[in-house]
Amino acid sequence: MAQFDLQKFKEIETPFFYYDESLLKETLKIIKSESDKHQFHVHYALKANANNRILELVKQAGLGADCVSGNEVLKAVELGFESNNIAFAGVGKSDKEINIGLDYDIFSFNCESLQELIVINELAEKRDKTARVALRINPNVNAKTHHYITTGLEENKFGINPWEFEEVLKVLEECNHIKLVGLHFHIGSQITDLDVFKSLCLRVNEIQEWFISKQILVEHINVGGGFGIDYENVDENPIADFAAFFQLFADFLEVKPSQQVHFELGRAVVAQCGSLISRVLYIKNGQKTNFAILDAGMTELIRPALYQSYHKIENITQAGAQSSEKYDVVGPICESSDCFGKAVVLPLTKRNDLIAIRSAGAYGEVMSSAYNLRDKAIAVYSSDLK
Ligand SMILES: *Cc1c(COP(=O)(O)O)cnc(C)c1O
Fold first, then answer.
1. What is the pTM for the complete model shown?
2. Residues annotated as part of the active site
3. What is the mean pLDDT of residues 289-309?
4. Residue 2: which pLDDT band, with cuts at 50, 70 and 90?
5. Nearest 5°: phi and psi at 77?
6. CATH class of 21-271
7. Which 3 state secondary structure label does DSSP give 27?
8. What are the two backbone dihedrals, phi and then psi, of residue 162, each rounded to the nearest 5 degrees?
9. Is the pLDDT of residue 1 over 60?
10. Dist. CA 91 → ligand 1 center (Å)
11. How far is the CA of 301 from the centre of ligand 1 (A)?
């Protein structure tokens, strides 16, 4: 079990997100050193967690930003990320959002359709600018992850498909206000099987060869994010194996001289540093099922309700107790999917015990909602408790 300061936690109104900054710093240090070995460039996907304090540490570690909305671009700029280090993807960028990217001359618009290329060109022309674009390509590689977080299959809405490439080249020839600078891929999230990334590399090599055969050599290849974490063995495995991850791309991606390789990691950067801390409101003993009813729910952490995802659940008040019981650990929201885990083995649990839901640093707080007119849970940082 992680080292939580129970005495300090008891004084804080629950539910709240707790962030372990030393783990985040350690993770960032390893990402930086392992990617530097291969001269790889890493962007952080803001959508995983966009808290200012988290972003500040990410920026200090020297990562760029990966954004999927105009407001994320504005946030990255506001927090001091260099605009030439900001990538902007998204299947439905509005004109307003594209104009934000143009205003700041961002590193690349990762463009997801033919029509978007034309729109970016028109908007850039109006501002007398040249937009840097990368083609987000749908490589039809199976990420072997939950189907809601698979993005690189033909049936998914993301990216430009290979059979559209000829037409893309025609459009690029006619558009004088966009410059093709990269090829971009992002096939899904929570990918733990490195073979999937090997398949991606091989597919990228083929696609790159096609472009080279048309005399197009882009400045950069962006292989996206998606590297998964160990939700089960959180304390044994708090930092994903970034050495193996980057080495795999060094081994299998065919990079041309002068070409840069970019990554966009989200979950693997921030998931493990965050926990959702909640209080048990009630224990309800049923005939078959005991319920532990928490004061946190899907409004704070929607991943279990949305993707049936697993999060490790710990009773930190009764840590070390010998007794054990099975509980369905549920939230207070009026939805039956508002359940963090079924038949979870916990020590005998009582009203007011504190419960930690682990690995909640990514796609937790940032996805929270006010459904049922709930208050927003606060964020608490380890350095504030010293
Ligand atoms: C969500 C997203 C990422 C980050 O994904 P993780 O699984 O959190 O690493 C990277 N790039 C794009 C385009 C995304 O949409």
1. 0.96
2. 334
3. 96
4. low
5. -65, -45
6. alpha beta
7. helix
8. -55, -35
9. no
10. 13
11. 18
